[in-house]
Hints:
This protein has helices spanning about 10-15, 30, 35, 40-45, 45-60, 70-75, 90-95, 160-165, 220-230, and strands at about 5-10, 80-85, 100-105, 105-115, 125, 145-150, 170-175, 195-200, 210-215. The chain is α/β, with parallel strands linked by helices. Strands 3-2-1-7-8-9 form a six-stranded parallel β-sheet, sandwiched between helices. A three-stranded antiparallel β-sheet has the order 5-4-6, with helices on one face. Strand 2 (about 80-85), helix 7 (about 90-95) and strand 3 form a beta-alpha-beta unit. It starts with a strand and ends with a helix. The mean pLDDT is about 90.
Amino acid sequence: MKQKLVFLTGAGMSAESGISTFRDSGGLWEKYPVMQVASIQGYEADPALVIQFYNERRRQLPTVEPNEGHRLVAKMEQDYDVTVVTQNVDNLHERAGSTRIIHLHGELMKATSSRFPNDPDQVVTLQPDQDIHIGDQAKDGSQLRPFIVWFGEAVPMIEPAAEAVSEADILVVIGTSLNVYPAAGLLQYANSRCRIYLIDPHPTNVPYSLHIHVIEKGASEGMKELTQLLAQ
Length: 232
């Protein structure tokens, strides 16, 4: 039976592919106030602005490719029972070949109802060049909105993610500051036998209450080192 390997990935996972992170210098937070474009209050105040923000993010996706880190994560499925838990809303893990992915914060390539955003029957898949407009209706007749979990909203996939982490033999955290909850709290679900690795060129907020092997590298180089460590 294959060991269970769980990846928890954040913005640093996709940074090498050219997708702007929010928190780094020159990132999206410097261009857009976070609560204006990434909160339910911001959406209710100016839905047109928020919809356009995510339309722009979605149109960017065809211009970038999965990096070596994404591909090495997918390759791990040859030897492990792999689950990817990602805070990213892009589709680079899918495009790299990973087959079991839990998106904590939603997906850019989908849209949903403003009235019942977490109802699976309301979710539709978009094309990269397919914009959402004010007046576009979801199946229930409400305004179609990005399928994104914003600040101020529940994270419906946190329970499946916590279950995956609790069953992991190996947990690998890549490119996340471990500052955003509830995702950062997932490490607390790791069992006492779980080996934990953190891949980040500038690790911060490392929970020293846990025994964590830190690899101070970017996603691609860090995954190369991890692959070698696990092969020993």
